[in-house]
Amino acid sequence: MSKVPYVERPYGYTTGLTGECAYVWALFLMHEADWNEDNVAYDRWKSMVDDLAPKPNKPVPAAVHYAALEDAIDRYTQ
Questions:
Q1: Do residues 52 and 22 make contact, with C-beta atoms less than 8 angstroms apart?
Q2: What are the boundaries of each domain within the chain?
Q3: Nearest by Cα to 76 from 35, 32, 42, 37
Q4: What gap in Å lies between CA 13 and CA 58, rounded to an integer?
Q5: CA-to-CA distance for 31 and 73, rounded, in angstroms?
Q6: Taking the complete model, does pTM exceed 0.85, yes or no?
Q7: What is the tens place of the pLDDT at every residue in 25-67?
Q8: How far apart are CA 71 and CA 53, in angstroms?
Q9: CB contact at 8 A, 76 and 30
């Protein structure tokens, strides 16, 4: 298992992640799925990575809420 990324919550929220944190986690989970040869999970995380990836003239979201991402983070951080 790779080094687990940090978890950063948006200021004033108890749920959700910052846009940068969600992107880093989605990348981590995509690479883990690739390493484990789980094509279904890889496609799910790849789609999320594509949505969250930094793009010119597109601001980084302050708060991101993905239930699947929160569930995966819970499994890795417990």
A1: yes
A2: 19-77
A3: 32
A4: 22
A5: 14
A6: yes
A7: 999 999 999 999 999 999 999 999 999 999 999 998 899 999 9
A8: 21
A9: no
3-state secondary structure the chain: CCCCCCCCCCCCCCCCECHHHHHHHHHHHHHHHHHCCCHHHHHHHHHHHHHHCCECCECCCCCECCHHHHHHHHHHHC
Location of structure tokens 């417990």: 78
For residues 47 and 22, the answer to whether their CB atoms sit within 8 Å is no
Q: What angle do CA 59, 65, 68 make, to 5 degrees?
A: 125
Task: Please report which confidence band the pLDDT of residue 2 belongs to, taking 50, 70 and 90 as the band edges.
Answer: low
Which tokens sit at 66?
A: 């993905």
